[in-house]
Structure formats: structure tokens, C-alpha cells
Design brief:
- By secondary structure, this protein is an alpha+beta fold.
- The protein is built from seven helices and 17 strands.
- It is globular.
């Protein structure tokens, strides 16, 4: 795929080879990333993604070498390099080079790299999902307040479980058995005209797109219930959909073997998001 990469003051169209077997990030997973989007020149909430990258790094005991503003400036430059019609994934990353003792990361060895590459927005077609047995951890079990790479293997296990059952994605519960999110996006459903999304309980990230959609719904006069969700509620939901940076808003059209229609709230969320985005100044 086409892309541009920034590392150590230099832009390149080739992926920089930056890790070796003795790097802490390579063998102990001390990596954080964030995922922004550029869509035909717009870069929605790019500033918030850059700020979260720095916050995630600090939560992972790193010493960030770039400020949010510096990261955003690099992202904007990279987006412009890729052209005004591109649909891109924008991924700033911090990682650790050295350890202190057996496993503790050395904050002074924090490094930074940026990858910006072609990644078309998925079509508005819907996806299937099943409930998976894998759980999201609580904050004392894992760094759930960071967008840390080490959190993603368990989501990958849930996605692999879903694939063996013919589904595209998985629903994951928290340690208490309540619905947390999809394996790769925040989860929403509607029932009897009410929109519901699991309340943030620090077992999953309060997604930037999730926050944006909540605000847009409220501006439109739609009440959003943020509360504890029981798994059985999804079995009788009128519609289920996801929000996340990669696909923004996507409807679930089959859940646990039950076919579902693309609902009015998912459709409204997508239309509101696109209208809001297109009202923002373009980056490229």
C-alpha cells in the first residue's frame, strides 16, 4: 500500500526498519499508537487523536518526545503529501528502546514514529457479529487507559473466534459479564426508540468517534443512554451498530445468527458524522 513515514526527522515512502530483538518494544510490547483518519482532505478530530497519543504514552510509563501540537503538524504535512483525494489511516506511535532491570521500561528511551497510508473507508454494507467468550480487562489487570498495543491480542482472539463461527466481528464483555464493546470498535444498540451504548467503566477506551457521535445525537435532540448493558439485551435489540475511527459508523446486520436491518439511528449517526466532518476546514 502507498504511504509516507516520518522517523528521526526524515520523511520516506519506504517503511523504516527501526526495531531489533533487544529493543524493549520488540520483546515486551511497550508500544502505544493512535489512529486518526484523513478522508478526501478532511482529518476529523485529528487534534484529539494526537493528544490521546501523548496521554497513552504517559499512561504506559513513557516520556513522550513530541507534544500533541508537534504530532498534529507532522500528521498534517504527511496527509498533504498523500494528496487531497486520499483516504488514509494516520498512526502516530511511541515505543520504548531500553528496559530497566528485567522488564520495566526506561522512559528516557522513548522513541516516536509516524505512519500515514492508504486505507479506504469500508463500504456502508453492514457486518455480522457473535458474542465471544473473551473479556476486556479491568484497570488493575492491564493499561486500559491507554491505546496500547498489548491490549489488542485479546481482541484479535475474539475476532478469530468470531471468524470460526462465520462472523466478521465479536462482542466482548467486561470482567463482570456486562457488554463492553466490539473487538475493534465501540458498540451501540437501539430498542423501542432509545439509543444505548455501554457506559465507560475503564475496561475499554471511550472512543473519540464515540464521543463525537454522542454529541451529535444530543445536538439533534436524540437521547443517548450510557449505562450498564446485559448481553441478553443485544438479542432483542431493534438495531446494533458500531463507531470507531477505522470505519466511523457501521451497522451490524446479523448478530448471533439473527438477521437485522440497517436501522434509522445507525443511518442518522453516519449522516450526522459526515455532515459535521465536511463542515470542518480541510487539511489537504
Amino acid at each position: 500500500m502507498a504511504g509516507v513515514y516520518w522517523y528521526d526527522g526524515t520523511w520516506s515512502t519506504e517503511e523504516p526498519k527501526v526495531l531489533g530483538p533487544m529493543d524493549h518494544a520488540f520483546w515486551l510490547g511497550s508500544v502505544i499508537f493512535d489512529g486518526g483518519r484523513a478522508i478526501k482532505g478532511w482529518a476529523p478530530d485529528l487534534d484529539r487523536h494526537c493528544a490521546r497519543a501523548v496521554a497513552s504514552a504517559k499512561a504506559m510509563l513513557m516520556k513522550p518526545t513530541k507534544t500533541p501540537a508537534e504530532i498534529e503538524a507532522l500528521c498534517r504535512e504527511g496527509i498533504r503529501r498523500m494528496g487531497p483525494e486520499a483516504e488514509l489511516y494516520v498512526r502516530p506511535m511511541f515505543f520504548i528502546r531500553k528496559g530497566l532491570g528485567a522488564a520495566r521500561p526506561d522512559p528516557d528511551s522513548t522513541d516516536f514514529i509516524l505512519a500515514i497510508y492508504d486505507s479506504p473507508i469500508p463500504k456502508w454494507a453492514g457486518f455480522s457479529a457473535v458474542m465471544a467468550p473473551f473479556r476486556r480487562p479491568t484497570p488493575e489487570m492491564a493499561p486500559t487507559d491507554a491505546k496500547a498495543a498489548c491490549l489488542y491480542p485479546n481482541g484479535a482472539r475474539a475476532s478469530a473466534y468470531a471468524a470460526t463461527r462465520g462472523a466478521d466481528n465479536a462482542v466482548m464483555c467486561d470482567a463482570f459479564g456486562h457488554v463492553a464493546e466490539f473487538a475493534s470498535a465501540n458498540l451501540w444498540f437501539a430498542k423501542d426508540g432509545k439509543v444505548v451504548t455501554p457506559a465507560v467503566n475503564h475496561t475499554f477506551l471511550n472512543g473519540i468517534t464515540r464521543q463525537r457521535i454522542i454529541g451529535l445525537f444530543k445536538d439533534a435532540g436524540v437521547t443517548v443512554e450510557e449505562r450498564t448493558v446485559k448481553p441478553a439485551e443485544l438479542d432483542t435489540a431493534d438495531e446494533i451498530f458500531s463507531t470507531g475511527n477505522y470505519a466511523k459508523v457501521q451497522p451490524c446486520t446479523r448478530y448471533n445468527g439473527r438477521d437485522m436491518q440497517i436501522g434509522r439511528f445507525a443511518t442518522q449517526a453516519r449522516e450526522m458524522y459526515w455532515r459535521w466532518m465536511e463542515a470542518q476546514p480541510k487539511v489537504a
